Structures are given as structure tokens and as C-alpha cells.
Amino acid sequence: MSAIRLLVLGAVRRHGRAHGYQVRNDLEAWGAHEWSRAKPGSIYHALKQMAKEGLLLAHGTAPSTAGGPPRTEYEITERGTEEYLALLRSSLTAHDQNTDVLTAGVGFVVDLERSEAVALLRERIDAIERRRASVTGHYVPAGGTGSLGHIGEIMNLWMHTADAGAEWTRGLIARIEAGAYTFAGEGGPSAGTAAPARPAQDAAGAGGRDT
């Protein structure tokens, strides 16, 4: 999964309509150019590509407020919203995403309802714990990682990374459940843009998914 698609779709959705420079400014304000591949060229390419795919609608050109050449404005389509929400939900549940994907998902988590955000993050913990148990059961001898020599440090690194990821996720869940932040449907200036609920069959089947 690529973080750039999630970032660009989310930024356009927040604006309603946006041109590439607005999207670029938003993502640079997040520092996304430092922790992801959201460089100017990638942003403009993603806008054009997703317009071709029908995820964004290009509205021709609008005059530049800075006095430069006219700019193409983009608006997210219904298909684009579906794709955005699928990417957002996946970014929060999958235990094996790159850090940039998870970071992008956290940046847009308030576009979901509070209860769904918590449920998705719980899925993430479950996936981390299942994967940790599977890997350690297969690769770590009964005597521990010490018997593997320096290769055992790879297992130690992986287990500590998994444990830290699960601990951070539990902390985020606790903060959300305690009322932190303003989520979709709650109103207020920092609220996310309301997202439709997942279909019942998706929610029911997600608990057993190890993505």
C-alpha cells in the first residue's frame, strides 16, 4: 500500500476542492515530505493518475491567487471516497504497514467515527499479537534467542518492535476512549469529515483478518 494515495485523497477530501499546490502545502505542513514519498512530483502525478482512474474529478483550471498560471482543481468522487476510506481503514489495522502508511492513517483517523477508530486499532493489536506469536513460535528456539548467535538479535529487534507497536496502539486507544480529539460526527472545528460506516459483513469478518 502506498501512503501517497491516502495522503492525496485525504487532503483533497478535507478541502472539498483543491489544486496541487494546496495539497502540497498541507502535506508539507505535516512534514510528510520528510517521512513519506510525498514530494511535489509524486503529489502532482498522484492527482493526475487518480483523476484518470475516476477517483478524483478535475474541474479544469482556476485562476491562481498568487498571480501565477491557472491551476487545475480536483474534487474527490464517490469512488474516490470509497478508495480513501478503504486505504484509511487498512492503514490502521494492518500490522505490517510501512511507518509512512500508519503515520498517514493516524493523520486522518478523525475522519472516522470514534467507535470505529477504536475498533480498527484493536484489530491492529490483535494482528500484531497473532503475528508475533507466529514468528516467535516458528523461529525462536525453546532456549531463547541466545542460542541463535548474533542472528538472535534480529528476533529480539522484531519482538521489541512488535511490543512497542502494540503498546503505542493501546495508549492511543486509551486517549481516544478518554475523549481526546474531535472525530467525525462530533462537530467542532477540528472534526473529521464524516465517513460512512463499514458494511456489516466487512466489520464482522475483520476480526479474523491478519493483514
UniProtKB/TrEMBL annotation:
SUPFAM superfamilies: Winged helix' DNA-binding domain (SSF46785). It holds the Pfam family PadR. Coiled coil: none annotated. Residues 191-204 have a biased composition (Low complexity). Residues 187-211 are annotated as: Disordered. Residues 8-84 form the Transcription regulator PadR N-terminal domain. This is PadR family transcriptional regulator.
